[in-house]
Amino acid sequence: MEFRGPFEAFFKAPQEIPATDGDCVLFWLRRGLTALYGQETEDGFDPQHGTLLATAGILMGFDFLGRAYYGGQAEGNKFVGVLQHAGGVTGHTAEVLYQLRCGLIHSLSLSAVSRRRFHRGQEFRFTLTDNASDPVVSPDASPNHRYAFLVSFPALRRLFLGTVRGLEAACHNPPQSARTTSGGDVAGNVAALAAEKIRSL
Questions:
Q1: How many domains does the chain have?
Q2: pLDDT surpasses 80 at 20
């Protein structure tokens, strides 16, 4: 059996061989995503296959990374916070992506009605695109709907990989905001989540 510390286990690269005693959820999520969109090191991929499933997986991944970054806070706050602090996006972009997450994860829909302070009660509509040069989120003027957005899948993929790297950097130098959350420090949260394992079948 190979020994790995909690950080190495949590951030284990998806191309590595699964451990006989199991690997953490993030490893298996990243491994599954590479089956849908290619290796993490590849810029080019075929967006025709698995884009919707990969988008759902990435959004679940942001939820998981938020648990590592913020511990015990409310789900929406963790999701938005990790995207801002580890992913480097604006609060607006993070909130819009949270609405996409709610629609896609809860009802397999590209629309959602906000239950957060962020435009509470408004319906958000989304269109996934494969334009790699677009920002991750941009307004969609075509449906004449105030809360319609284009979401670039290639940019979303890059944001996910960047957020994983940002969280790894935060483990080595935790920001004050993460140290003082109700869930404890980033390193402690990562260690706890690394202990949750899935064994290969």
A1: 1
A2: yes
